[in-house]
Each structure stands twice: as C-alpha cells, then as structure tokens.
Amino acid sequence: MKDFGVYDEEAYLDACRVYEEVKLKTVTAFEGVQTTLDTIRKAGISVGIITDADTLHATSRLDRIGVLQMVDCLITPDRAGARKPDPRGFVLATEALEVSPESVCVVGDSLRREIEPAMRLGMTTVYARYGDRSNTKSHVVPDYTIMAFPELLPILGIEKE
C-alpha cells in the first residue's frame, strides 16, 4: 500500500487490532487437548510450549482455550530471539524446564519447523499430523505420528484415566 501512496499507519494498526480480536474469539483447541494435558500434568510430566506467536498473543490464546495454567514453560520469539526452526527456542525450553534434550518429547505439526530441529537436538519427536495443513513433502521421519492429541498418552507411557 505504501508503494501506491495509500498507506495509513493508524488504519493498519486498527486492522491488526481487529484481526487479533477476531482470531482470539474464534481460536479453539484440538479435541482432547485440555484433558490430555491434564493427564500429562497429573503424571508429573512438565509441559512446555514453543510458539512463533509473541508472548502477549500466545498467552491470550492459551488462556482462551483453557490451557495456560497447564504450561510450565512458554517460549516465544521475543524470548528466544528467533523463530522456529531455529533451535534456540528448543534449547531455551530445556534450560527453563531443567531437563536434557534426550528426555524431551516434542509434539509438532510441522516436520520442517518443529520435528527436524528437535531431532537434531536428540529429542523424541511426535508429528501431530492432524494439525499440519501444509501437506509438505519432507525427508524427515519422526519417531511417532499421531492423528489426535490423546494418542500422545501411550507414547509417554501414560494410561488413559
């Protein structure tokens, strides 16, 4: 719009605000996320999230879907200094949770941005196929693939309640 001389900063910021408000009102969790995270937490397993959303938007969205209080560690680009697939966010999460990469199980819906960097760090990887809308072909082969979030429980050695 700047190229055509019709850019207006105030209108742009207003449009961004409206977009975020609508997005927040319509965001929903995948089926079974809340109960699965609750079961994981009851099993004594820490939960971390690495996202490309900034901290303000990430916390608002996680709160909206009712899982913010279940998260021990939230890593965002403004905290890590980089977006996925840069490994810095993954490393920062292990440091924040005080765990070794080998003890971490990463669940992600992007083979390139989440699964591949986690594999390079020696983490167990779970590809959340149900969340991948890109259908991108990849040479990356995750340790596990799930079609619904609750399928994570047996991978973690947890029996359903």
Descriptive account of the structure:
The protein contains 7 helices and 5 strands. The strands form 2 sheets. It has a 3-stranded parallel sheet with strand order 3-4-5, with helices on one face. Strands 1-2 form a two-stranded parallel sheet. Helix 6 links the parallel strand 3 and strand 4. The termini are far apart. The model has no long low-confidence stretch (mean pLDDT 93).
- Helix-strand string: HHEHEHHEHEEH
Beta-strand percent range: 5-15%
Instruction: State the strand order across the main sheet.
Output: 3-4-5
SS elements, strand count: 5
Q: State the domain count.
A: 1
Low-confidence stretches: none
Number of helices: 7
Anisotropy-based shape: globular
Gap between N and C termini: 54 Å
**What name does CATH use for the topology?**
Rossmann fold
CATH fourth-tier homologous superfamily:
HAD superfamily/HAD-like
| CATH level-1 class | Alpha Beta
Mean pLDDT: 93
Short description:
The chain is α/β, with parallel strands linked by helices and 161 residues long. The protein has a single domain (31-155), classed as Rossmann fold, CATH 3.40.50.1000.
List the keywords.
161 residues, alpha/beta, three-stranded parallel β-sheet, 41% helix, two-stranded parallel sheet, globular, Rossmann fold
Write the SSE topology:
Layout: H1 9-26, H2 33-42, E1 48-50, H3 55-64, E2 73-75, H4 77-80, H5 88-97, E3 105-108, H6 111-120, E4 124-128, E5 144-146, H7 152-155
